[in-house]
Amino acid sequence: MQGFPFFPEQASSFAAQVDHLYIFLVALTAFFTLLIATLIGVFAFQYRRRSEDERPGHVVEPMALEVAWIAVPLAIVVVIFFWSAHLYISMNRVPRNAVDVYVVGKRWMWKVQHLTGQREINELHVPVGIPIRLNLTSEDVIHSFFIPAFRVKKDAVPGRYSVAWFLATKPGTYHLFCAEYCGTKHSGMIGSIVVMEPARFQAWLAGGAAGLSLAAGGQKLFNELACVTCHRPDSQGRGPLLDGLLGKVVKLANGEAVTANEEYIRESIVTPSAKIVAGYQPVMPTYQGLVSEEGLLQLIAYIRTLKGPAGGEAPPAAAAEGPRSPKDQARDVRTQ
Amino acid sequence: MTTEAPALPREHYLNVAYGWKSWLFTTDHKRIALLYLASVSLAFLAGGVFALLIRLELLTPAGDVVQAETYNRLFTMHGVVMVFFFMIPAIPAVLGNFLIPIMVGARDLAFPRINLLSWYLYVIGGLFAAYSILTGGLDTGWTFYTPYSTVYSNSNVVSAALGVFISGFSSILTGLNFIVTIHKMRAPGLTWFRLPLFVWAHYATSLIQVLGTPVIAATILLVALERVLHLGFFDPTRGGDPVLFQHLFWFYSHPAVYIMILPAMGVISELVAAFSRKRIFGYAFVAMSSLAIAALSFLVWGHHMFISGQSAYAGLVFSALSFLVAIPSAVKVFNWTATLYKGSISFQAPMLYVFAFIGLFTIGGLTGLFLASLGLDIHVTDTYFIVAHFHYVMVGGTTMAYLGGLHFWWPKITGRMYPEWWARLAALMVFVGFNLTFFPQFVVGYLGMPRRYYAYPPEFQVLNVLSSAGATILGAGYVLPMVYMVWSMRYGKIASANPWAAKGLEWETSSPPPTENFPRQPVVEEEAYHYAPDLVVGHGAPSPGAVSHG
């Protein structure tokens, strides 16, 4: 960067749009500040007190003036509202082809999992030109995932999954900051976003020790934690079947109904007694403390691969890499 | 200006009694105002020292002057002390306390003993805060965000929270006292629309104090209960919701911003009128804009939470409502500016603070539009841009007005003038130092530097050095008045009853006033700011007092 920068690098599809709004507002601020300063300067000079007993007369106060300085600012803020709201809505509308990345904030590091199994700490490698959906949560306190070059920021809140997305447009290495104060090493909870050309990104994916894909990791946990004893077709109905669960409407014992999303599944593992499925007994023990936030994300990824009974069980690895189901894509356009 | 040298009145509220008991058990609103003046000055000094240490640490990118834990305590205590123990009480409890009974022509506030109780509550709250600071400090940020504050922080959260809780009642009682006084104790002839705008602003502020403060009290109590008894309100592992805390916290703490700025706007209205010898342009609009701001203040808290997981629809509504705050704010700024038109403008120190206030509040207010803008707020929230914005409003706005007001009414409070040239120098230093400190923070914030960072990437250093350099000038600019104000209490030129030839009941009694404020019940026969000989207000009919002004 040359000279003295006033903008962070523009490295995402949003960056220029955010900067345009910013420049407009800077110009607006400069205009009104100078207007007021000039008026004050001119009046203060023109009407400076010339003698101690000066008594200026009364001036008429035209109602039109009052109306004008209510109406003009009102018109201006209406324009800004629609401009910024439009930008905000597009920031909340995740493209259908976005690739999921799972991020867990923990004091004081960022833990990243890719669908294909790669794990990173305080780094996130992404390809240029492909939308990335960040699925954020936290293991302890609230953190905030902030990439200035992308103009993207989203809180990682414990007990919740929040979503943000970006489309990187320029290869390079950019700052990743934690923007929500989280304790002693808050300012050390930083890292880098490495944006690569797609070919180099594929090479990076192939080069690392990938281990199990996210869903395959989930399947392993599903067996290890003995979820399998109650939630499979041969478990005599102790627990509800999980096939095709995500996006399905679940009837609860108390008569309510919920749409099963990631947060519902997470809650059902961590606090099973919170929502009992109609027709089942509250016999499931809590898994709080027994499974990490990353493990929960893996379990959810695995449950997503469980199709309806007819389709059978898809191989997790293939599901993770292949195109996602329409149901998953339905989640894309949602507000978070 | 009179030709003969004025003399102090033989008996006034300061010399009717001596000794510590005459102060600690006083129910005179003027003496209680001075008790507050001493205590908020102490708080301001402490908060200022914390600020200077923060700026010292940020001179270099690496964390080197203090430990990270210490740094986190410094910015937390700077925020807690400045917000709860300086900004919120400063103008209402010092200037408001002193002036509101006099401005409405009353002998005292409606509940003098409750007024004294408020001060004691403030002090007890302050002692809790001081205890927390001296025994290890607080590191949650002044915002007490959960679950950090309730589960993870290893600092004195409970005692500090109790300090805020207790001092909150001081704020509620002051507000209550003002509301009742303004309703019930106005002098004969002092109709609502003859009230000085300072009183209108305090009336609006008091409504917020009474309605909003109980919410923060309850919230802070929930934090203490969760921390001590492990009840699950905000901690997700106990079934709580951390974002619920933010809703409750900002439901008070955004209106609290207007508790800080509205009285400042009231001060500015008085000063603009006095130093341009004009009735405030659009008096009714300025008065009503205070109430509009107070009403809107309760409807915008969600703009602190655009990235916290609040729904996008809620975000849209809060954004739209937040933009509306710009309207009454603009109404005030334009009307103050228009007041200067064809006025008789003089440039004593209080007026310099007015000019600084209007300029800086304009920037502070307009940068608020950046933050109400959803798509842009995502980038700038939690960065130094926010820090710069609220310091423009709180320091560039409230503190400027407080200093301007203190200088303006100093002769009334003490009976003596402050030294004019020193005061102008201090005002200039504060203005220059302020801008050098906080303007670079807008830039570094947009570049992406997050707030509350102990160490930062080296490319942000130049702007941080500028900011720290500005802070030293600003610090010196604040120390100067503390010195010459104390000096002037003994050695300042003796002031006349009305050294500015200003309008308002407070200038019709002696400087300093007698304990009972006025020798006999004043009767108001003219409009507020009746400077112009030809002023006619109302529905075309001449006001009854138009013949007997002066």
What this model shows, in words?
Chain A has two domains: 8-49 and 93-211, Cupredoxins -  blue copper proteins (Immunoglobulin-like, Sandwich); 214-330, Orthogonal Bundle (Cytochrome Bc1 Complex, Chain D, domain 2), CATH 1.10.760.10. Chain A has a five-stranded mixed sheet, covered by helices on one side. Chain A has a five-stranded mixed sheet with strand order 4-10-9-6-7. The two termini of chain A are 35 Å apart. Chain A is built from eight helices and twelve strands. Chain A is an alpha+beta fold. Residues 310-336 of chain A have low confidence and may be disordered. Chain A is elongated, with a radius of gyration of 27 Å. Chain B is mostly helical and 550 residues long. Chain B has one domain: Cytochrome c oxidase-like, subunit I domain (Cytochrome C Oxidase, Chain A), CATH 1.20.210.10. Chain B has helices at 20-24, 29-57, 68-103, 112-134, 148-152, 157-184, 197-229, 242-276, 283-297, 312-324, 326-340, 349-372, 374-380, 384-414, 420-447, 461-491. The two termini of chain B are 15 Å apart. The model of chain B is unreliable at 538-550 (pLDDT under 50). At the A-B interface, helix 1, helix 2, strand 7 and strand 9 of A face helix 3, helix 5, helix 8, helix 10 and helix 11 of B.
Secondary structure blueprint with pairings:
The complex is a heterodimer of chains A (336) and B (550).
Chain A: H1 15-46, H2 63-92, E1 99-106, E2 109-114, E3 119-121, E4 123-127, E5 132-138, E6 143-147, E7 152-156, E8 162-166, E9 172-178, E10 191-196, H3 198-207, H4 214-224, E11 249-251, E12 257-259, H5 262-270, H6 293-305, H7 316-321, H8 326-330
Parallel strand pairs in A: 1-5, 4-10
Antiparallel strand pairs in A: 1-2, 2-3, 5-8, 6-7, 6-9, 9-10, 11-12
Helix pairs in contact in A: 4-6
Chain B: H1 20-24, H2 29-57, H3 68-103, H4 112-134, H5 148-152, H6 157-184, H7 197-229, H8 242-276, H9 283-297, H10 312-324, H11 326-340, H12 349-372, H13 374-380, H14 384-414, H15 420-447, H16 461-491
Helix pairs in contact in B: 2-3, 2-4, 2-16, 3-4, 3-6, 3-7, 3-8, 3-14, 4-6, 6-7, 7-8, 7-9, 8-9, 8-11, 8-12, 8-14, 9-11, 11-12, 12-14, 12-15, 14-15, 15-16
